[in-house]
Amino acid sequence: MSEVIVVIGPGLIGQAIARRVSAGKHVVLADLHQENADTAADILSNAGFDVSTATVDISSRQSIQAVVKTATKLGNVMGLIQAAGVSPSQASPQTILTVDLYGTAVVLEEFGNIIARGGAGVVIASQSGHRLGALTAEQDAALAMTPPDELLTLPMLQPDQVTDSLHAYQLAKRGNALRVMAEAVRWSKRGARINTISPGIIITPLAKDELSGPRGEGYRRMIDLSPVGRAGTPDEVGTLGALLMGPDGAFITGSDFLIDGGVTASYFYGELAPNERRSGSGQQRQPYGKASS
Amino acid sequence: MSEVIVVIGPGLIGQAIARRVSAGKHVVLADLHQENADTAADILSNAGFDVSTATVDISSRQSIQAVVKTATKLGNVMGLIQAAGVSPSQASPQTILTVDLYGTAVVLEEFGNIIARGGAGVVIASQSGHRLGALTAEQDAALAMTPPDELLTLPMLQPDQVTDSLHAYQLAKRGNALRVMAEAVRWSKRGARINTISPGIIITPLAKDELSGPRGEGYRRMIDLSPVGRAGTPDEVGTLGALLMGPDGAFITGSDFLIDGGVTASYFYGELAPNERRSGSGQQRQPYGKASS
Amino acid sequence: MSEVIVVIGPGLIGQAIARRVSAGKHVVLADLHQENADTAADILSNAGFDVSTATVDISSRQSIQAVVKTATKLGNVMGLIQAAGVSPSQASPQTILTVDLYGTAVVLEEFGNIIARGGAGVVIASQSGHRLGALTAEQDAALAMTPPDELLTLPMLQPDQVTDSLHAYQLAKRGNALRVMAEAVRWSKRGARINTISPGIIITPLAKDELSGPRGEGYRRMIDLSPVGRAGTPDEVGTLGALLMGPDGAFITGSDFLIDGGVTASYFYGELAPNERRSGSGQQRQPYGKASS
Amino acid sequence: MSEVIVVIGPGLIGQAIARRVSAGKHVVLADLHQENADTAADILSNAGFDVSTATVDISSRQSIQAVVKTATKLGNVMGLIQAAGVSPSQASPQTILTVDLYGTAVVLEEFGNIIARGGAGVVIASQSGHRLGALTAEQDAALAMTPPDELLTLPMLQPDQVTDSLHAYQLAKRGNALRVMAEAVRWSKRGARINTISPGIIITPLAKDELSGPRGEGYRRMIDLSPVGRAGTPDEVGTLGALLMGPDGAFITGSDFLIDGGVTASYFYGELAPNERRSGSGQQRQPYGKASS
User: Residue D160 burial by CB count (10 A; 0-12/13-18/19+): exposed, middle or buried?
Assistant: First the structure.
């Protein structure tokens, strides 16, 4: 029977991971837009992978279940790469929570019901999830363990609590990593593992558009001032994803791996600290890099 | 000129990482006890590495500076593996804070002053650092950026605040990861990177002793109930360390990588949740794994 | 100063290796046809790499020298991926020897004159080079060490000796691996390494065309009867290339790595053995796989 | 059911590969001397591996069959690391042929009969096998495919043909790589792969003894004049072995990977060329490295 890898949201990051773990397997490329799935299918098919496509709206459990059905008919699902989501510049807070938080929770639940023994998955979250201040232990637990269909009724996620898209995005991505922890426990009953990758600025066609768009200056400053001083490549995320999904990651499950060129470190303790924090009355702290020179 | 890798605390984890990144380089093995350094030197020398030994007490800046001097005389320091520390079953809260928290901060500061362009380091922390509840943003910043020699005067670290060794250990390990964030900013000025690895239960001779000692039953239960269902090997940490220190980790700095077989996930949201939390009046939550069965 | 990776013949195999070793470096994509270089540049630029293009005809030393000049102006040349060549279905014996054998020899010589300390290269040869019977030690040495500009005057390479394109191709690819041995000695004087990869059937758009073309049936039979039972992917070659060019390959130079799904093994000792050999009077040998069933 | 990795001849090279592919599996360590197996068992057990030991004399099919029985009782045999053998300084030509050539052939045959689907193996041969001049196609085929129990009756292996231990060793190691080709075909029927690694001078306690023994000067000269300029480490072989045995090697079977620091390249075309060849009347060729300076 075939072994199947499912990529939900097969942009360049999803593709880069798939390239590393799918030789000799069947790859299901599922996207909201058939056109995106087709583009990915062309690229990966030309690069020697056996592929098929599907459309999926991860905000719909029924839609996810249809992909699960497609995938399980094709063989044993050995891998899940959940890279679908909407970005804060694209959508309302409510849409972000519905797709990125609820949708990912359902994807993990449904694939966790059928993942094969020895299988593994990764969820692509974001450095944004690391930028949010600490939540309470109760909030963490609620994001991790509330049944998906009740998630969006949590008080902390109501419109009066989440008023802008960036905040919604940060909550959703934090929620992804927490959800992965709880699902790691459940996936282990089937002998499978699941982890989160939180990438920083990774160059893709979409990211290039943003870098030359209205918010581009901010992003370029973030890259220039970051410790590594450059953006990342999808293939660098691919290498990390391959480790997590393969035998070298066999002792890793429920973890969240930040790969961001040091942007988060600098945001908290370096030149990328927001102005209000750098000049805040309470701290008066010089960013670390400055202090040392 | 030679390239030098420095291993502070060269037990099996430090050795496993060193094995993967030190071929053709000179390895300095520095331990509190000359005997331990010699044992590691024998093993690595027999395995083809060019080694020398040193003694170091990382609770002393002067002692660390002596190792730095030894290392820089031998060549360009391309790598630092900081694996030294005391465990909660070995020492008092004050000793743990002095060695694991303060000592690591000084190690990072002193090696950050001389690390070579293109160099990289890893600090071995612990899953214990992930088990502590959230600190405030101010506490995080204090642990990350307070000058090392003022660290132990922080109010949060005083004996009335830190009364048991396990708490001290969790704080120290949390502090290591925070410190690494701040140092990632500073190391980047020299074109170098630094990350944290937080291992779970990794089998070493010391760990084997603990597994058969008075607290062994607790550890064995932790392993049995964990998602992966086994302890890790030093070589699994070595593989992760090699990724972080090598070119595949070039976009990763200031991050903390948890490799624990899912114990932390299960501690928060699975069968390893402490009883008080599982039966707590406020939550009445079934661990996730149970809920799904 | 920038670090530069040069890809000569940036088809999917060259790209796959480049993706794995070029993050944060500048990639020079040089092809006979500007259009091919541009296509590769689009793909890699969209995937986060800093690229420039050049045209090169590797049958011309002057043309190669121009690429060397372009590359060295951009920075230190840390990597060479020589993947240019013509295939036996595309060209005459003389063209194949001129491009694949002579051209590769000049590429290795010219880049070997400027490769940076710590640099590395790979030459993409072919399983075809492993299919040719043994040459004499003198022929091996001649292919390895004859100054490039005298190579094509060797008696063994004259038109009366090499009458078909496949034979020319096998000789050229055998010659590549031999040349790499000699150049490994010379590159080592600059602290650099060079190896050969001999891929089997790797799916690329060109390979897909051949699989559906007039010789397609033969190729498909080769794949079906091969030990691994499938074609390879460019990314699988990329992973091997990354090992050879990176620190994990530091003890490897002058070697030739066959990655062919077992086709060569089966050609000599299995179901893919040519009929004349299988029914040969001298041996009457059953292929190994059959014998065991 | 458990997954089992079998290491025959668990010296440092065998251990280094085992460390990389055996986490969570059971490792059978089989050596001619129980004491060697016990030493390896101590080391690997202390490093977190689940191990058992066996004695085996690979010159005896019965003895190999006993190990196979032990291993298959423990679980599915997913991996074979055949690193046992005698060296030319240790034994007579006949012993070398019996152990290194015949013994390895039987090991491959017996484990090839029971290797699990998805399994893989590596045989540790030697750079010495690359040093021998070309054999005829008939000799190659005879070494590859003659039933093991008839191997030692081949005319080419009779005492009048093989008069010194080094020649016997080179023949045996060449024979290993050829045998692996034929076995790759047979192993593929069970969905498994098998490859050869041909290491150069790798530092182990035994190698260190030789470097300081009567032939030490020759070895040290070989290292000093080699392209890489140093000996290799077992862990470098371990990394290559892990690639070949794991998913990244899925398209590689029946191949022979030379990892020798360039010694072979230099032996044929560099400073390590034997004097008789360098001053030979027929060639009068300067080694390549000299020629270029």
Answer: exposed
